[in-house]
Amino acid sequence: MVSQSPVVSSTRPYMVRAMYDWCVDNQLTPFIVVAVDASVRVPTEFVRDNEIVLNISMGATSSLVLGNDYIDFKARFGGVARDISVPMGRVSAIYARENGQGMTFPLEASATKPEALAPAQPVVPAPVLSGVQSSTAAKKPTQSQAAEGTPADAKPAGSSPRPALTRIK
Q: CB within 10 Å: which end of the chain, N or C, has fewer?
């Protein structure tokens, strides 16, 4: 007679919850890295290379549930509230933002199929901010700006490679 071994559940949800609790107990910010596929419900515009990093701290989420099968919560992305749902098998790491300490996990065998790694929707690149060139009039300080204590040897706003704000009255 051959005895069957009992089905053992994954240790991943328990380890994720333990790392989350450790981060919270030490006033650290828990982040998870998620391998995105069709089973993951996240804002696709923030997905890079089929991965997304999510802040799961109490201040960044509401209704957080770290279940055995899914991590579910609500969060704001660009001011828009979104429902997030991540299968536990798609979590590839959990770590503390402040010191990088955490754990990594291999993707589950069923989740590593090549067709599962393709994003559900085309990824739209996030907007990129660029500097604005100031006009020549804005580069020269006015008499009122010079009188307010602006140093005479201060560089004008457009002379450095970094963008700068110019106060206009």
A: N
d(CA 72, CA 57): 13
12-112: CATH topology is: SH3 type barrels. (2.30.30)
Task: Report how far residue 169's alpha carbon sits from residue 4's, in angstroms, rounded to the nearest whole number.
Answer: 81
Q: What is the pLDDT of residues 80-134, one digit of tens each?
A: 999 999 999 999 999 999 999 999 999 875 444 444 444 445 555 656 665 655 5
∠ CA 155-150-169, rounded to 5°:
100
What percent of the chain has pLDDT above 90? Answer: 56
As given in the structure block, the two tokens for residue 68 are 């055995």
The continuous run of DSSP H or E covering 138 comes out as: helix 136-139
Query: How many CB atoms within 10 Å of residue 158?
Result: 17
Determine the longest span between alpha carbons in the chain, in angstroms.
98
The residues, any chain, with a CB within 8 Å of residue 132's CB and separated by 6 or more, are 163
Percentage of residues of the chain with pLDDT beyond 70: 62
Output 106 or 149, whichever has higher pLDDT.
106
Taking alpha carbons only, the member of 91, 101, 87 closest to residue 30 is: 101
